[in-house]
């Protein structure tokens, strides 16, 4: 089982840096689809990713069609969108997963969403709210994927406090 995250035309370097840090922490590959709204050498991008940037498994793609053609190997692909008909927790995240997120100001292309409505997932919010911050949305959906997969190879207990009944006071 694997988890991969794709950002289609991300615009804000700090969001991408935070997402890169999340990807390193959970062992997910990050795909960036051009054009990017910043240089990959941007100091804000690297600052948000801190020292994790060098451990990142990163792939750059020239466009979304090329990215998607490169994923035709049995991977389940889900599109995060406020237009999704299903809540993200209803999806089956068993197996190899690619979560695709759109640019901060416009989301994913409408034509892509219309062609694959069964893959469109949403994070519930109060009525009248536009969307979550991109890096928060990635973290929410990534951790649901990993939860369903049993948090593979991830440390689930503290190294310092191994007794769950111990009261720290």
Task: Give the helix/strand layout.
Elements: E1 3-8, H1 13-26, E2 29-33, H2 43-49, E3 58-61, H3 64-69, E4 76-80, E5 86-87, E6 97-101, H4 110-115, E7 120-122, H5 134-148
Parallel strand pairs: 1-2, 1-6, 2-3, 4-6, 4-7, 5-7
Helix pairs in contact: 1-2, 1-5
Most strands sheet: 7 strands, parallel
Helix content: 25-40%
**Would you list the SSEs in sequence order as H and E?**
EHEHEHEEEHEH
Q: In terms of per-residue confidence, which ranges show pLDDT below 50 for 5 or more consecutive residues?
A: none
Number of strands: 7
Assign the structural class, choosing from mainly alpha, mainly beta, alpha/beta, alpha+beta, or little secondary structure.
alpha/beta
Strand order of the largest sheet: 3-2-1-6-4-7-5
Helix count, DSSP H or I runs of 4 or more residues:
5
Average pLDDT figure: 89
Strand content: 15-25%
Distance linking N and C termini: 39 Å
Q: Calculate Rg over CA atoms.
A: 17 Å
The coarse silhouette is globular
What do you see in this structure?
The protein has 169 residues and is an alpha/beta fold. Helices cover 28% and strands 18% of the residues. The chain starts with a strand and ends in a 21-residue tail after the last helix.
What descriptive keywords fit this protein?
169 residues; 5 helices; 7 strands; single chain; alpha/beta; seven-stranded parallel beta sheet; globular; 28% helix
Brief write-up:
The chain is of the alpha/beta class and 169 residues long. It has helices at 13-26, 43-49, 64-69, 110-115, 134-148, and strands spanning 3-8, 29-33, 58-61, 76-80, 86-87, 97-101, 120-122.
